[in-house]
Amino acid sequence: MPEMEQPKKVADRYLKRELLGQGTYGVVFKATDTKTEETVAIKKIRLGKQKEGVNITALREIKMLKELKHPHIILLIDAFPHKENLHLVFEFMETDLEAVIRDSNIFLSPGDIKSYLLMTLKGLAYCHEKWVLHRDMKPNNLLIGPDGQLKLADFGLARIFGSPGRKFTHQVFARWYRAPELLFGAKQYGAAVDVWAAGCIFAELLLRRPFLQGNSDIDQLSKIFAAFGTPKADQWPDVKKLPDYVEYQFIPAPSLRSLFPAVSEDALDLLSKMFTYDPKARISVKKALEHRFFTSAPAPTDPAKLPKPLRKQEGKASHDRHDAIRVVSPPRKLRRLMPERGKLDCVKSHVDKDQQAPMSLDFTILAERPPNRPTITSADRSHLKRKLDLEFQ
Amino acid sequence: MADFQTSTQRAKWILTPQKLAERYKVANQKAVQMLEKCGTTQVEVDASGSLTYPTEKVDAGDQADKKLKPLSVDEERFMRAFYEAKVQEVCSAFNFPHKIQATALQYFKRFYLQWSVMQHHPKEIMLTCVYASCKIEENHVSAEEIGKGIKQDHHIILKYEMAVLQSLEFDLIVYAPYRAMGGFVSDMEEFVQARGDEIQKLENLLKAATAEADKVMLTDAPLLFPPGQLALAALRIANGALGVVDFDRYLENIVSQPNYEHTASELTKFLDDIESLVKNYKYPSEKDMKHINRKLKSCLGHSSSHDDSKKREKRSKHKSHRSSNDTPNGGAPVG
């Protein structure tokens, strides 16, 4: 019977397609929503056995995304349990900003950079307007749809803020995007932490490499101070009150211009405001969107015209190079994009035949081994959980 | 999240009184039919959220089954009222903030829009709602801790969690009147230009209104009115006793604000409705509960649930501490 040949639908609605990646708490696969005929991405989260019931990260993501509906926030279409797994159905996104930044074949014009930053800040402004802190802003979590629209994703660390005196954990964000107040152990913080991270993303778009690459929390502060100088008392009066504050040897601030030699005055001014030490004085997302950087020339590129990483079918032309660098490309980005570790080799060898190969393989065209990005490590995460257990006053 | 206007609560979980009555009736009827067809109403649940409905009985003429009488809509209401009060008891015992309690109550109320108490025992759902509320409100308490604290088997909580979340359609952010009340009181401070003594009086008003809001949360009002109106109703009730502000004048001030969606008379009507829900709130007597609970136990089917609890008992670490009354379907819930 022909019906028997049909792939089985998940929950009578979704036609399962290829694996997109392995997440920290499950797998992501591509699927077709038979109700709308649209392509979706389904995150499968293992259930059962856990002592603490349904995965809290998944629940945070669901509870936030159920309420957040915006053109620059990933759309959660559906959530349901099915065969020992919790399934989260998202709109399908083609790639992410990290892939764009890393792709050495892509030239990003000032208008392109402005467009990416504009979309990032619009999504973030909406979150802050709804009193939601993202707390994991990084290029890898900014997904890019087939129409070039950038959307904030991964709300597993997001929190509602605004209750006075409420304490949070400072173990949030991947280290390179962590604001200095978090590195000094601040427990009461606000939207400014997301702004710092957005500043790091802006800088990364300009430099085409992560801006402040600390290899430990202490080193991260050193990198920050090397870039902006140690904070002076009048710059950040409250810094000494922070729990983990330690005095650093005085480092004078180099001129911001020396770090970003090729950028416009407006860009430099916005950067300096997003990297203001004192979180109280740091520019808000709303104000950043009103900055003249966004109204002065060049205009932000139309999202549909933004450059995208080479897709598999287009990649055939660069076949040779593709092969040559396969060796140096490590199985990175396990979080969203890599196929299962064990299957990696077999997937790779089929890359050119498979028109629908996972987008992760785009990285194999990178000629250079990019730095390993720290995410919140499992050690950090267990720390985070402990903190969350205790933080309610 | 501070935007009730775009919330799932406003879009999906605030009903008209007619609709609410209908939902309760439909849930009851489904269970009644199940009892007729299958001789039991218990819907089994597992941790991955899959449900097992009772199977139709072959022999319809069984004498024992004939005695089974379903709960009426009103009896279901009593059963829910009893366990909603338990939510508040459990939350106070743990010293949880009002928000946790209010969220747990909302979850419990929403759950029983889809189900009859005859299908899922309200004690189990009550505990699961408290656990889920703590989790979602980022006041994490382990299921084991909750179980230990009130001498209940925490495996039940974990077993029901997914089924509860799914029945809530994963709309997990809920709005309670408490924060809105704080907002109104600081607004009142400005409105009456309070100083010294008056500020203290307003603080007392907020305290009294918080207790009134706890009562409002036990009625159907949270399924019928937005949290802002619940907050105003609680404040008005408290102010009726304390006489701190000219409430009518304050309401006029509210409706005169640009874009306010109701007239003064509409708003007053809503507050009257909420107040009458509080006045007409009925809590079952011990006698009522004994009777209803006996009926519920027979609907849920003694034998099957007995086996089930035995299985759980083997897995539980503290079986020696548990008396037979602690098994999910055993014992009168009174006390």
Automatic annotation (TrEMBL), chain A:
Task: Please give the residue ranges the record annotates as the region Disordered.
Answer: 296-322, 368-393
Q: Sorted alphabetically, which Gene3D superfamilies does this protein's record hold?
A: Phosphorylase Kinase, domain 1, Transferase(Phosphotransferase) domain 1
Which part of the chain is the Protein kinase domain? Answer: 14-294
Catalytic activity, as annotated:
L-seryl-[protein] + ATP = O-phospho-L-seryl-[protein] + ADP + H(+); [DNA-directed RNA polymerase] + ATP = phospho-[DNA-directed RNA polymerase] + ADP + H(+); L-threonyl-[protein] + ATP = O-phospho-L-threonyl-[protein] + ADP + H(+)
Entries under SMART domains matching the protein: S_TKc
Q: Name one GO cellular component term.
A: transcription factor TFIIK complex
What name appears for this protein in its UniProt entry?
A: Protein kinase domain-containing protein
TrEMBL record, chain B:
Pfam families named among the record's database cross-references: Cyclin_C_2, Cyclin_N
Please tell me whether the keyword Coiled coil is annotated for this protein.
yes
- For this protein, what is any one GO molecular function term? cyclin-dependent protein serine/threonine kinase regulator activity
Write out the biased-composition intervals (Basic residues): 312-322
Is the keyword Coiled coil assigned to this protein?
yes
GO BP terms, alphabetized? cell division; regulation of transcription by RNA polymerase II
Q: Which GO terms describe its cellular component?
A: nucleus
Q: Which CDD domains does the record match to this protein?
A: CYCLIN_AcCycH_rpt1, CYCLIN_AcCycH_rpt2
Where in this protein does the record put region Disordered? 296-335
The organism's superkingdom is given as Eukaryota
Q: Which UniProt keywords apply?
A: Cell cycle, Cell division, Coiled coil, Cyclin
Q: Domain (Cyclin-like): give its ranges.
A: 85-166
Instruction: Tell me the SMART domains matching this sequence.
Output: CYCLIN
Query: Which intervals of the chain form a coiled coil?
Result: 192-219
Q: Which family does it belong to?
A: Belongs to the cyclin family.
Record's PANTHER family? CYCLIN
Under which name does UniProt file this protein? Cyclin-H1-1
- Provide the species name: Microthlaspi erraticum
